[in-house]
Amino acid sequence: MTCSEHLSNDPKLRRVLRLPDLVLLIIGTVIGSGIFLVPGLVIKAVGNSLVVALSVWLVGGVLSLLGALTYGELSAMNPAAGGLYVYIRDCFGRFPAFLFGWILFFVVSTGSIATLAVAFSNYLAEVVALAPWTGRLVSVSMIGVIAAVNVLGTRKSANLQNVATALKVSAILAIAGVLLWSGNRMQLHSAAPVMSLSSRLSGIGLALVSVLWAYEGWQYATFAAGETVNPRRDFPLAFLAGVFTLMGIYFLANLGYVAALGIDGAANSSRVAATALATAVSPTVARVVVIVILISIFSAAHSIALTAPRVYYAMAKDGLFFHWLAEVHPRFGTPALAILATAFWASILAVTGTFEQLLTYVVFVGWSFYALAAASIFVYRKRESTASVRYRVPGYPWTPLIFIATVAAFVLNTIAAQPARAALGIGVVLTGIPGYLIWRRK
After folding, report:
1. In 3D, which of 442, 284, 377 has the Cα closest to residue 66?
2. Are 182 and 261 in contact (CB under 8 A)?
3. Is the preceding peptide bond at 397 cis, omega within 30 degrees of 0?
4. Bridge partners (DSSP) listed for residue 8
5. CA within 20 to 30 Å of 432's CA: 59, 104, 320, 404, which one?
6. 8 A C-beta contact, residue 305 and residue 85
7. What is the reported pTM?
8. Cα–Cα dist 92/89, whole Å
9. Each residue of 44-62: pLDDT tens digit?
10. Phi and psi for 385 in degrees, rounded to 5?
11. What pLDDT is stored for residue 190 in this prediction?
12. End-to-end CA distance of the chain
């Protein structure tokens, strides 16, 4: 009997996720390999100043917090599977919602999983010798494992996600603690020549892009709102706790790296975590970083597989995607075919290596949809009663407005600075128009 014969439209997604699951899901999605690599790039971009670098990390965290606080109210107001897709659909129409889901499936979420899977095999190759074809097999196998776990049950997926996230957070904090304890090179500024004001501002802008990439991923938690036991209470708390925890982890990691290497040493290292441990402790201990990165990458990829397929499930329920993606497994209570379709396409991207350019072109467009989803709060508040929602975003309307304005500035700057790349990204998004017309006609 085939998989599709086991499925029907009658079963529903099961509400099994609780507050700790959401917090660890947010943290697990965000922390991939960025914190092990990006801090050195940020310090170098801002002229080797720890104070300025930490300020950029703070700004990135605050901007993420503004968006997360806004999404907290949206998730509490409309706790349906699909999250951002549902908000955009309800407030701005089916067409922009479809385009968001389209690029999420074909590029953003699957491309992110493919990126993480290839990175997993690359880091594993530092521990075990891998031939090129073996590396591809490892990448596809990792995707297959996370797909299988997610098909077998949301509760099982959350349990694995919780363990993996707890392990990597504990490891990062332990590394930061060892570096702070062993290091004696803490400096606030470099002895290098001072940058001009225009160069410093340009560097801060470049650093902020890297930092926002390191914070990327907290939005994915909204996709699982339809499987949360108490979404109206838990989502606002989860976003608040998750983003604050991320900010604390990133600050400690940066301080640890600089304590071990000094400001110039950290700025000149492309693999700052491993270099810091090798310098402060020993090269042998530095190999531990590879294991931590492998766990971190697996956790991030797994969290995307746990959340993103819920968007395609919601699209299919609306008749705007392949109808079989809306089917829920009667035994496991998961959108099994949506999960498998995600894994299949991610595997193709990983094997062919086509994800890198696609992601580069489309990431800024993804942020446009994040801003559009945040703007949904104004529409919801205007036309619907929010009396039953206990959480209201603090600082309204400025909190969502600042987030939207910042994202808009980032998107417009990308278009102005890289018009050819931006045009290609927009072109990829617009390839969804024929698909929308076909499914809408059906």
Report:
1. 377
2. no
3. yes
4. 328
5. 404
6. no
7. 0.90
8. 6
9. 888 888 889 999 999 999 9
10. -75, 130
11. 60
12. 29
